[in-house]
Design goal:
Elements lengths: L2 H24 L6 H6 L6 H12 L2 H15 L4 H30 L4 H9 L2 H33 L5 H47 L6 H10 L13 H5 L7 H13 L5 H9 L3 H27 L1 H4 L12 H10 L3 H42 L5 H25 L2 H27 L5 H25 L2 H6 L1 H22 L4 H11 L6
């Protein structure tokens, strides 16, 4: 075993023990359904803020997006990190956090499907939302497992990828099933601190690499960059140093919109606002979460933009997804300090992904246990039964994600590529308008969900028939942005044409009284 592997194993063991302890400690506070799903609506500013940020950024951001966009676009890719922090985090907290907390408390709703049912008096909408969450979020978790497994396999080439995926799945299951939302909040706080320390150290290390030349030499060296002969993705120094992305400006804008506004409709993100304890915590959490996202988002894309310099313009053998792992090995592969730091960075990437996984799994499990099954059975289920079923389904979904990730099932990878935009496109309209307007009708909300679904589904079908599925997948950012826009427009337009009856209007008026309460 090399020193790199030894330090990584030690760091992984310490991390695993810490996560398991948090899960065990949180067990006593998660014996009720409210405690398990939303922490009893008593989570503080720091835990909620870090939970929001760590759920936002998984290893996919570092390994996938930052590596790919930094390599192809250059420093302009940093705008994605800025957009995520300002639009996806700051604006989301300012506009929706307090309203979401107050309305979901008034409705006694614990999940996004539960919110839809009680806001719009529709069990059918609850079932539809639950199915969408199950179909399109669970495959996403499978893809994250696979990405993490591949990353650890790069450091431990003698260990099969499935072994790492099994370790990650087991660790996630232990503290999630034991402690529920409370455990995930506290682990997210620890994971967030690890992520900040790791990103700051990595940025400093990358900028000080000989090929980068420090802060002063970075831009100049990037401006003088020339692609190697035969480069499959040739570019110029002018492109890489264009602050607005140069020829990739349109692509950059769509990715900013998708990854930023997309959080406004994702149930695993919105769920953080259900649990925060009061308005004062929201004010503090807004600042904390925005700063966190700025550090992580901008740091990730800055690292990605240095990749061509660090690697001498040579695309790694594994392609785009191997860029960041190769950069890590190049920058941190030598010396005791570098090896220790590499171990910390591996835990950083593990933390980033596990926080996303736990949120997705809890969201998916609760959608089935709390929303779908009781609605289909048409019979009231005891809270204790729902909680037990949610714990069991958390285990089932972790196991399914692991199996899907090891089987290389094409449909899973395909669903994952559309999941972010499709789920947000379905939910963003009825969720946001439901918070702000009393005039939104059940039919209007249905129109928002279905229009988002049909926008992505219809566009995918047309492009696949006229070109290929890979061409459709390449257009997924545009589809996701279009779905969100269509949903936001469809909800109020259809609601104007289908006004609420008097009894429904009175019920909605009573719901909106929550904004006058604390």
């Amino acid at each position: 075993m090399t020193n790199t592997q030894l330090y990584t194993v030690i760091a992984l063991c310490v991390y695993a023990i810490a996560m398991a302890l948090i899960g065990c400690i949180s067990y006593g506070k998660s014996k009720t359904l409210d405690g398990f799903l939303i922490g009893g609506r008593n989570i503080g500013a720091w835990a909620t803020a870090f939970s929001y940020g760590t759920t936002y950024f998984s290893a996919v951001v570092f390994v996938g997006y930052a590596g790919q966009h930094g390599w192809n676009i250059g420093i302009g890719a940093i705008w994605i990190g800025i957009g995520n922090a300002v639009l996806g985090c700051l604006l989301s907290w300012l506009l929706f956090a307090n309203r979401t907390r107050k309305m979901t408390k008034k409705l006694n709703s614990r999940t996004m499907p539960d919110y839809f049912e009680k806001r719009y008096a529709s069990k059918g909408m609850k079932v539809l939302a639950s199915v969408i969450i199950f179909v399109f979020l669970v495959p996403y978790s499978a893809a994250v497992y696979k990405g993490l497994g591949s990353l650890f396999s790069a450091v431990f080439p003698g260990v099969e990828t499935w072994v790492w995926m099994l370790i990650i799945a087991s660790l996630t299951a232990v503290y999630l099933v034991a402690g529920g939302y409370i455990a995930t909040s506290y682990t997210d706080l620890v994971q967030g601190i690890i992520m900040i320390v790791g990103v700051v150290c990595l940025v400093v290390s990358v900028l000080n690499h000989d090929n980068v030349g420090g802060i002063n030499g970075f831009i100049e060296n990037l401006r003088n960059f020339e692609s190697l002969p035969g480069d499959p993705n040739p570019t110029t120094g002018l492109q890489l140093t264009d602050i607005f992305g140069g020829s990739s400006f349109k692509f950059l804008c769509f990715n900013i919109m998708l990854t930023s506004f997309g959080t406004w409709g994702l149930p695993q993100m919105i769920g953080k606002f259900y649990a925060i304890k009061d308005t004062a915590a929201i004010k503090r959490g807004t600042v904390i979460s925005t700063v966190f996202c700025l550090i992580i988002g901008c740091g990730a894309y800055l690292i990605g933009s240095t990749s061509r310099l660090v690697l001498g313009g040579q695309l790694p053998e594994g392609g785009i997804d191997s860029i960041i792992p190769t950069v890590l090995m190049e920058v941190l592969g030598g010396g005791t300090f570098g090896i220790v730091l590499l171990a910390v960075i591996m835990i950083l990437l593990l933390s980033a992904s596990m926080s996303t996984l736990e949120a997705v799994v809890l969201t998916s499990a609760s959608a089935v246990a709390v929303d779908l099954i009781p609605a289909v059975r048409k019979k009231e289920t005891k809270p204790e039964t729902q909680m037990l079923l949610t714990r069991i389904l958390c285990l089932v979904f972790v196991a399914c994600s692991f199996i899907f990730a090891t089987r290389n099932i094409p449909i899973i990878v395909s669903l994952m590529s559309f999941s972010w935009g499709l789920v947000s496109g379905c939910f963003i309209g009825p969720y946001i308008w439901g918070l702000f307007s009393k005039r939104i009708t059940k039919i209007g909300a249905y129109a928002g969900i279905l229009s988002g679904l049909l926008t992505v589904g219809g566009a995918t079908l047309v492009i696949t028939l006229t070109d290929s599925f890979s061409a459709a997948a390449a257009k997924s950012p545009e589809m996701g942005v279009a779905a969100m826009a269509v949903s936001l427009i469809a909800v109020p337009v259809v609601s104007l044409l289908t006004k609420n009856k008097k009894a429904e209007a009175e019920r909605v008026d009573a719901i909106f009284e929550c904004y006058g309460e604390e």
